Every structure is written in C-alpha cells, then in structure tokens.
Amino acid sequence: MIDPRLAELLDAAPGLRLKTGPADLEHYGRDWTRRWTPAPLAVALPGTVEEVQAVGRGANRHKVAIVPSGGRTGLSGGAVAAHGELVLSLERMNRVLDFDPVDRTLTVQAGTPLEAVQEAARGHGLQYPVDFAARGSCTIGGNIATNAGGIRVIRYGNTREWVAGLKVVTGAGEVLELNRGLVKNSSGYDLRHLFIGSEGTLGIVVEATLKLTDPVPQGSVMLLALPSFEVLMQVFAEFRARLRLEAFEFFTDVALRHVLAHGGQAPFAGTYPYYVVTEFAGGDEATEAAAMAAFEHCMEQGWIVDGVISQSGAQAAQLWRLREGITESIARYTPYKNDVSVRISAMPAFLARAQALLGQAYPQYEVVWFGHIGDGNLHINVLKPADVDGAEFVAHCEQVTRLLAQALQEHGGSISAEHGIGLVKKPYLGSIRSPEEIALMRGIRRVFDPNGILNPGKLLDA
C-alpha cells in the first residue's frame, strides 16, 4: 500500500514519477561518500517546475524532509538521504531551454549534465569554461549548489562567475526568478548569490541562465616532473609570469601509480616524487618560446627534473588523463577525503605544515595528494587498508581533520574549497566561519525554508 503522503503528491501532480524499489532507494539515497546507509522514503522525479512546486508544498504540509539530488557526485555527504527523506531528483529536467546570441547566455534545466552544457555552448561557437573530471555525470544544479570549481579556476573562476540568472523553488514552494540574466542590476540584495553554494538548504534550483565566452584556441599541455614538494610554488610563479595559464595541477608519484594501475601509459622512463600538469593558451611561436624559457629556467634552478609538452590534441588528452583519472583510480579504496584551500600567497607555509602533520598522523595509511595548486586548493585522500574497519578508519581520520582544520584556521584557509560542507565537513564549519556568521546563516535558512524541510542536517544543524 502506498504511503498516504506519496498518494497526495501524485494527486497534486499526476505526471510526477515516483520510485520506491529497494535498488532505487539505495541508488538515489547516497552520493560518492558511501559512508551512510541510504534510507529514503521515496524518490520523486519531477519533469516540470510545477511538479517541483507540488512536491515542496506537499512536503511542507506533512513535514517531510526533501533531499535535492543532481548527479550525486558530491564528496561531502550533501546528497545523502539516510533518515526517511524524500529524494527529489532533477534528472528528468535535463533540457537546454534557450540560447541568446546577443547576451551569449545559455538557459538550461538544473538536471542538465555539465558535459551537455559544454557541448551546447560549442555548438554555438562559444564555451562554458567550468570544467572537471566528473563532467559527464555531475549536473548544473549540483554545480551551482556547491559553487563547483575544477581544473580551470585559475583562469575562469568558480561556477558563481558564470551564473547570470536562476529560477528556484523555495522551501515553501514559491518560484523566484533571480537576476534574470542582467549584467548590471543594483536593485537591492542579489539573492542569486545566496543560492549559489547553499547546498540545497534554501531552495531547489530548477533553471539556470549561464554566461558563455569565446573558445580558447588550442593550447599546449606540459607535464613536469619535480624533485620535491618545496619547489612547487617556484615553478608555478615562473610559469604564471611568462604564460597565460589555463590550469596548473599537481599530483604525487603515489597518485600516478594508481592511475597507471587503473590503465594508462607512463609518461617518463623514470619515476619522480611530484608532477605538474599545466595548460596554457596560445600555440604560436612566441608562446612556445616563453614556455621553453620557463621550463629551461626551472631546470637550471633544479626545480624541474624532466618534462614533456603535447604535440597533438590526443597527446594533450593523454597527459590530462594522468591527473583526471586519480579519483576514479582510488575509488575502490573508499578514501577519506579532505578538500582544503588557502590563499595562494599562504600556500608554501601551509604546504609545509600540512605535509608534516599528515606524515606524522598517517604513517600506516597511504595518502594520495593532488590539487589545483594555482588557486590554492589541495585534495588529500587517505586510502583505507582492506583489513581496517571502516568506522575505525573514519574515526582516526576525523581526529586528524580536526588538527588540519586548526592549521587551516591559522593560515586563513577553508576546510572546504569546492565540495561543500554537507555532513562530512559540518563539525569543522567553525574553523572558517565565525559564530556571528553561522547565526546569520541559520537565520537566512529559516527565512527561505521556515519548516526546515530542505536538506536538513546538511551544512548547518537546525
């Protein structure tokens, strides 16, 4: 017999699809953290804004919690439904709605995968420049909910910079149209920016108007081998001074070993402790000369010990695979992930502190480091040994994360650079936000979601 609350939803929105099978509940009730046992009430798959409104109104009447769901590629537990919540999946709302050639904007539904947005932009001779490895499965709504960054933040910034307008459904079932694609709009509070990075706690993003830009001409990709952690920032400074960098990513020999074991080709005859993948715009002789000058200077200083530059698009993709394949290659080890950031100027001091801290704390675990060093973002992945209990492993890692949060606070950094707070990072929110800020955040949440039905327990406690 169907739950009366679900029957009412179907009466209010006859076209609404519901899933209640055990396999569906498990699939839609978790994200990539895999730390909580999914236990949602049901999965609602609306196809229209009106159906999203109907779900919101019905949930408010019955005080049923809603967990908004995109591609569920998050790593902070923000899309977990483990306590009888109703998962509201936007996967059916996945269409490109409009392209404006004058404004150079693309309006899409929230369930549209990032890769589909990028392809649509290319079809109009433009580009949507936000990019990361999960492009094929993550969705624009989820990207907006976490203000996703990725591999080209150094050049283009985070998702926030590319959102010209939003249509959202609040916790009360009201529709808000925010900014409406305007370039200039000084008419009071820009509520659009409250929803970007709000992790589904203020409302449900249903449509987004995204800015597009000119495509970058085919650039070049270099893979650099470094002898030590300490020279990383010197190499970055040298390349940034001479080239227009599109990306500057680093990873360790441990990360490379996992990628190669997962399927890949070794880039050098020897092995080195640290690597950088950097991409820069251009392709003319002047750019190539500047790249070689940067490379040779770093070699002379002993900051680089080997390197290779792409000679074709296929080789560039092959070099990028060494960086983008890391997360997939270590997924089977159920890694405990830290996603942290500091100002670029504070990176050298923080790198030294973090490396010492983690070296002392995790001597028995394998730690995989990689990250967007050009924008101050580090990803630290601790791999769980097969013979270690999962709960014991997480408890140990959380003790070290508290120390890491303290170090970040001392260096003016953040415990979450681009994955959001969710459930995983919530205990450490106080390391980056003051008590006064957190109190204001709670107040804002109550205004938009007075009954507390939207993603409860995520980001903030009630």
Automatic annotation (TrEMBL):
The reply on keyword Transcription is no
InterPro entries per UniProt: FAD-bd_oxidored_4_C, FAD-bd_PCMH, FAD-bd_PCMH-like_sf, FAD-bd_PCMH_sub2, FAD-linked_Oxase-like_C, FAD-oxidored/transferase_4, Oxid_FAD_bind_N, Vanillyl_alc_oxidase_C-sub2
Which parts of the chain are coiled coil? Answer: none
**TM helices/strands, residue ranges:** none
Identify the residues that the record assigns to the FAD-binding PCMH-type domain, covering every copy.
36-215
Q: Care to name a GO molecular-function term for this sequence? A: oxidoreductase activity
Query: What keywords is this UniProt entry annotated with?
Result: FAD, Flavoprotein, Oxidoreductase
Which example biological process does GO assign this protein?
A: respiratory electron transport chain
Q: Which cofactor does it need?
A: FAD
Family of the protein in this entry: Belongs to the FAD-binding oxidoreductase/transferase type 4 family.
Q: What is this protein called?
A: FAD-binding oxidoreductase
**To which species is this protein native?**
Pseudoxanthomonas taiwanensis
Taxonomic lineage of the native organism: Bacteria, Pseudomonadati, Pseudomonadota, Gammaproteobacteria, Lysobacterales
